[in-house]
Design a protein that fits this description.
10 helices, Serine Threonine Protein Phosphatase 5, Tetratricopeptide repeat, mainly alpha, single chain, Ankyrin_rpt, Ankyrin_rpt-contain_sf, 2 domains, ANK repeat, about 180 residues, about 0% strand
Length: about 180
């Protein structure tokens, strides 16, 4: 029975949508803030995710593209959204030691102790990889060094397990400092 409703040409539409999505992810990875802003202004969802669950914000921030990250945050990209490995954009910054990017994310409302399902915070990632300067930034923004992940480990536990001596010394000293 004919309904009078035109059937969509889904294959053609799907290919167009996929191409726009691919292009958006290339812009995020490559740091093309202006072109990505144009797509966002045209209605592209700011929290678009790829096949690994990485958002545009995750990729832009991980690759150190400050202007692109700022554009995404201004378009209400969610800085707490985790990828399929449970990592937040701030955790990626902590892993890489990108303090400028961490500051940008934190200045735009990222939770300093935000974590994925495993409970690992950015401070824990910074501690694992001996990123003491990053740890200091996170601590100055209110990160709680005693916080535990799902396996009951703290940042100090991770620093010691990974042989991150400077981080372990810094975190151990915090435990000895009177409140």
């Amino acid at each position: 029975m004919k309904t009078g409703i035109q059937e969509p040409q889904s294959a053609a539409i799907d290919q167009e949508v996929l191409e726009v999505a691919r292009t958006a992810f290339q812009y995020a990875r490559g740091g093309n803030a202006e072109a990505l802003a144009a797509l966002l202004d045209a209605g592209l969802p700011a929290n678009l995710r790829n096949e690994r669950g990485d958002t545009l914000l995750m990729l832009a921030s991980y690759h150190g593209h400050v202007d692109t990250t700022r554009v995404l945050l201004e378009h209400e990209a969610d800085p707490e959204r985790t990828n399929d490995r449970g990592q937040t954009p701030l955790a990626g910054c902590a892993f890489k030691g990108d303090i400028a990017m961490a500051r940008l994310l934190l200045d735009h409302g990222t939770q300093v102790d935000g974590a994925g399902p495993d409970g690992k915070t950015a401070l824990m990632f910074a501690a694992m990889f001996d990123r003491v300067e990053m740890m200091d930034e996170l601590l100055s923004r209110g990160a709680i060094p005693e916080r535990r992940d799902a396996e009951k480990r703290t940042a100090l536990d991770y620093a010691r397990a990974m042989g991150a001596h400077r981080a372990a010394e810094r975190l151990a000293a915090l435990q000895q400092t009177p409140a």
